[in-house]
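FORM 7B: Structural annotation worksheet

SECTION A. Query
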Amino acid sequence: MSEKRHISRATGIMGLATGLSRIGGLVRDMVVAGFFGAGFATDAFFMAFTIPNLLRRFFAEGSLTAAFVPTFSDVLHREGPEEARRVASICWTLLLLVLTLVTLAGVLGSPYIVRFIGFGFGSIEGKLALTDYLNRIMFPYIFFVSLLALLTGILNVHGRYFWPSVSPLVLNIAMVLSAIFLSPLFEVPITALAVGVLLGGLLQLLMQFPALKATEIRLRLDFSFSHPAVRRIASLMLPGIAGVAIYQINVVLTRLLASFLPEGSVSYLYYGQRLFEFPQGIFIVSLAQAVLPSMSRQASLGDMDGLKESLRFALILIALFTLPAAVGLLLCAVPVFSLFFMSGAFGFEEVRQSALALAFYAPGLFFLGISRVVVPAFYAMKNTRTPVWISFWTLLVNAGLGLALMGPFKHLGLALALTLSSVFNGALLLWMLRRVAGPLGLMPVITNLLRLIPVTLLMGIVVWSILQFGPWTEAGRHGLKAAVLFAAVSTGMLVYGVGCMVVRIPQAAEAYALIRRKLGRRV
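SECTION B. Predicted structure
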């Protein structure tokens, strides 16, 4: 199988699985909004969830995956399955020890951590105490999902993508069921959400073991921490941790600044970012995960031309999917929140403020996509230091813009700051990759991008015109709202798809041919 087909297949599998998970996340957020609204309790929960979620990305999705996948892939393809099994067991043992210490430190040090990241909550009686209480319950989540990240890396290198990608659906189901059935049992009802997070993390980990068994990987305790591959992973992981830490400081900084803004600001940003992450998770994250093993194989074999070709292919796919998604988020922000969230404690003012946050996040989707597929190119070449420095400068840009914009624009200024810093990050990553790897041959990417812009604008006009028929400011009327939103989205997709064919985007033609073959088999 060619690398392009491998990347496309892996992206499709993970995109489907992640799509199911994101739908579950949408249902979860609807339940949270309906039960708890946007205010005192939800601000505290989202702030508390920032901490274990931050460490999840700190230890798991970022540095661990970036360091483990290229090294494990190299061992598997050069030294064979037996040595790969040994390396996996050593990493499993080391991670168990590290995560146990991190979890204990997090639970014991919770009051200090919460006071630091939610400093602005100190002016509201009881808000810091509630945040600390929820954080203590949820903190062990980091233990389960970091182990999950290791298993995900092993499975991805073996070409297994579905179960790791669909596992967040289990977290969402656990949170929804906890909110519905457990919240009446607690004196502080939102405690049920924290319990759901903990249960969901455990179930996410356990569901990977049947798929792991099929790879013939048998994890056991192995304390040979001086193994050369483990030292290599550690040497790559240290700068990777710094890079991920800097990125996550951006998230913490945004939440910290939002804690000084009017009540509800943290929740508005959370709800806006959650919907912003919908297309990001379905496609961008899936593509980034799919392209890393391919680039790692190519780098391991010294095939730099192949690596650059994989990068160009990934960038074209990013443009193909993120441009219409960004315009769709911008236009459909109010309709989506009105249809799915406007009920109970979540009124139209909450709809409007959350939708505005989403609209300010949306333009950064394309540049975030660039970052997510360029960084794996550095990791595949075992260069984790350059992304660290770029992340550091991005942090400074985000901090400066956030402080400058939060005064006049409140929480919208913080959303805009993240968007502008994403533009800076994506552009600088491409520029530095060219310096490290030589000319990238991006002219095909630019050509396709120029073709996509007018098609995307036409799609936007059509979608906007149809959305004018929806009663978005009114509560209820879900049938009419759903019909108008569905008509706008489906018509927009049709216009965009036909437009891509007309302007001759190769990837669109390949997707159309694939659909025809699939349908032809069923006829």
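SECTION C. Observations
Residues 517-523 have pLDDT under 50 and may be disordered. The radius of gyration is 23 Å.

SECTION D. Sign-off
Analyst initials: ____
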